[in-house]
Amino acid sequence: MSVMNVRPIRPVRSRRRITTAAVAIAATLGLVSLSACSAMSSNGRTADGKLQVTASFYPLEFLAKEIGGDHVKVTGLTKPGVEPHDLELTPRQTGSLADAGAIVYLKGLQPAVDAAIKQSGNKHIADAASLTSLEKHGNEVDGHHHTTGDNHSDSSHDEGHEGHSHEDGGADPHIWLDPVKYAEVAKGVARTLGEADPDHKADYEKNAAALATKLDALNKKFAEGLKNRASDTFITTHAAFGYLAERYGLTEEAISGVDPESEPSAARMKDLHKLAEDHHVSTVFFETLANPATAKTLAKDLNLKTDVLDPLEGITDESRGHDYFEVMESNLVALKKALGTK
């Protein structure tokens, strides 16, 4: 495993810049207009008694639904097709956080959500960033953005690993793309739901265990499927796949860093031309929610193929699958093809 010093995430830059003042005003308006009157009447339940769970974006929404089952009603803050980093909350969304029975989010990924949750006063919050170890990926050293990793097909390398907080300015938030880390988060989410709804604690734990079993099978499928490859290196639009690369001994070379909105330097583009040749790269990957123009231009210049490697930040009609597992399976197929597995 290689954990590098990186350019700060800051933690993320939005296309529509979210100022601290704007977030504070929205949060204040939302809490004043909605929470003051609703807090007294809401107990975090729907009319039919289900636990109301608010999830910040798709990967955590998926976890909450899988773990909560019939006992919860899950509402996602990030609508399909919206880049999560760009999310701006409405006053109604902000106010609803105070009334939720539980909240599931990833601190550091969405500044607007972080600010609103801090002001919500909600006591049942699962922060995915605190439920597994975070690392530094998407490194920028002399224009380079890369992540490498030794082949770790089990979870043993996480034991005793000292993670990094988002506040240190360097943590990669894309933990859900590593099935092992995602399973660790699932256990923590089950614990929070059980605290918010003790009557169904056993069911939440059972569902999380079943989900962990499926994620373990997915992890093994990736590890087996990516053996006997012709190349270890793949090129992506931004450095979203650092944990995946590290898990399976691959090298991710990103056009931009962890921030999908950062622009690559001329030196970086020159480096990509050379490494594509040196490492027998066949494919430049782009994403469904991010602008593919730079990736497609690079591929055209190098006469390489293009394909989709989905960071699973949201599911849309263009996604290669209807849920987390289907899209991850599609990602595996795309990686196998690009890396020349036998």
Characterization of the model:
This protein has 342 residues and is α/β, with parallel strands linked by helices. The chain is 40% helix and 11% strand. The chain contains ten helices and nine strands. Strands 2-1-3-4 form a four-stranded parallel β-sheet, sandwiched between helices. A three-stranded mixed β-sheet has the order 5-7-6. Helix 9 (293-302) links the parallel strand 8 and strand 9 (305-308). Helix 2 (58-68) packs across helix 5 and helix 3 (91-99) crosses helix 4 (111-120). The protein is globular, with a radius of gyration of 20 Å. The model is unreliable at 1-41, 139-145 and 151-168 (pLDDT under 50).
As laid out across the biggest beta sheet, the strand order is 2-1-3-4
How helical, in percent, are the residues?
Answer: 40-55%
**Count, helices:** 10
The SSE order reads HEHEHEHEEHHEHEHEHEH
Radius of gyration: 20 Å
Instruction: Characterize the largest beta sheet: strand count, sense, and whether it forms a barrel.
Output: 4 strands, parallel
Question: Beta-strand level of the residues, as a percent range?
Answer: 5-15%
pLDDT averaged residue by residue: 81
The poorly predicted ranges are 1-41, 139-145, 151-168
Defining key terms:
342 residues, alpha/beta, four-stranded parallel sheet, three-stranded mixed sheet, 9 strands, 40% helix
What is the topological layout?
Layout: H1 20-38, E1 51-55, H2 58-68, E2 72-76, H3 91-99, E3 102-105, H4 111-120, E4 125-127, E5 146-148, H5 179-196, H6 201-225, E6 233-236, H7 242-247, E7 251-254, H8 266-278, E8 283-286, H9 293-302, E9 305-308, H10 324-339
Parallel strand pairs: 1-2, 1-3, 3-4, 6-7, 8-9
Antiparallel strand pairs: 5-7
Helix pairs in contact: 1-3, 1-4, 2-5, 3-4, 5-6, 6-10
